[in-house]
Specification:
The chain has 9 helices and 7 strands, in the order βαβαβαβαβααβαααβ. The protein is of the alpha/beta class and 269 residues long. The protein has a single domain, classed as NAD(P)-binding Rossmann-like Domain (Rossmann fold), CATH 3.40.50.720. 47% of the residues are buried. The structure holds NADP nicotinamide-adenine-dinucleotide phosphate. Keywords: Oxidoreductase.
């Protein structure tokens, strides 16, 4: 049968996420910030989550609201430590109340990395717990809340930021890698458990992306090595990752489910 040339595919709309409500955790800085700005540019209403940098989160929201034409804000901020279940519940409550709507999209970008890059032998109990509390427990709380509360019937999206290091298994990242590998396993399982809801669940696994997290504690040599390892010969930018999340969040991305999408320019694999 010939393809219709008259029906506009949702992917062709300039605002494929028009008025969908999204929560982006860790959106005050880095990759989460770029994702929040991108989802808003696609028409979404966005809750900007942060844990300490209120001023930066406010700037992201102000930027989105300055470009919107309506009288009600399209972006709000909310402080919540994602490693605390009660705070994650409050985060979802805040998004529903701010936009008077159920949530359709969760992007969990909040994360931490031990900038000492310890070998497993040198990883302290405290550093292991900090890493797992935010990256794994935090992702679990966000996914659990999302699984129970995201709108059924289509357009529901759960997207967790993991890391390409789960593939490359670099020395110095054992707790971090393990915390993200656990998330990838949870998200794949969750995608199956959400059968019948129309909600998809995926992980997006960046390689080296030029953010505070990436540069923290790295020598010039370590940074240069990341560039050399990448076939495209540079570090990733936050804007390299955000459109992939935007695609997964849109109706055009509905057939991608239970996957880990590595976004790394061919490096860090
Ligand atoms: N950059 C990379 O090379 C890279 C590579 C692969 C994967 N990733 C992953 O991508 C995600 C974003 O990384 P990034 O480079 O953008 O990091 P980043 O620049 O360090 O930003 C981290 C963000 O997470 C927030 N955050 C940290 N702990 C939190 C908590 N307990 N509760 C709520 N928010 C919290 C921070 O909020 P405040 O500003 O309030 O502190 C900030 O918004 C992370 O999950 C990271 O593991 C990054």
């Amino acid at each position: 049968m010939a393809e219709s040339t008259t029906t506009a595919h949702p992917a062709q709309s300039p605002h494929p996420l028009q008025d969908r409500v999204a929560i982006v955790t860790g959106a005050s800085r880095g990759i989460g910030r770029a994702i929040a700005l991108h989802l808003a540019s696609l028409g979404a209403k966005v809750l900007i989550n942060y844990t300490s940098n209120r001023a930066l989160a406010d700037e992201v929201a102000a930027h989105i609201n300055s470009t919107s034409t309506g009288s009600t804000p399209r972006a709000v901020t909310f402080r919540a430590n994602i490693s605390d279940a009660a705070q994650v519940k409050s985060l979802f409550d805040a998004a529903e109340a701010a936009f008077n709507s159920p949530i359709q999209i969760l992007v969990n970008s909040a994360g931490v990395l031990d900038s000492k890059y310890p070998t497993l032998a040198d990883t302290t109990d405290e550093d292991f717990d900090t890493t797992f509390n935010v990256n794994c427990r935090g992702a679990f709380f966000c996914c659990r809340e999302a699984a129970n509360r995201i709108k059924r019937g289509g357009g529901g999206r759960i997207i967790c930021m993991t890391t390409s290091v789960v593939g490359s298994l670099k020395p110095g990242y054992s707790a971090y890698t393990a915390s993200k590998a656990a998330v990838e396993a949870m998200v794949k399982t969750l995608a199956k458990e959400l059968k019948g809801t129309g909600i998809t669940a995926n992980s997006v696994a960046p390689g080296a992306v030029a953010t505070e997290m990436f540069f923290a504690g790295k020598t010039e040599e370590m940074v240069n090595r990341a560039v050399e390892e990448c076939p495209l010969g540079r570090l990733g930018e936050t804007e390299d990752v955000a459109p992939v999340v935007g695609f997964l969040a849109s109706d055009a991305g509905q057939w991608v489910n239970g996957q880990v999408i590595r976004v790394n320019g061919g490096g860090y694999v």
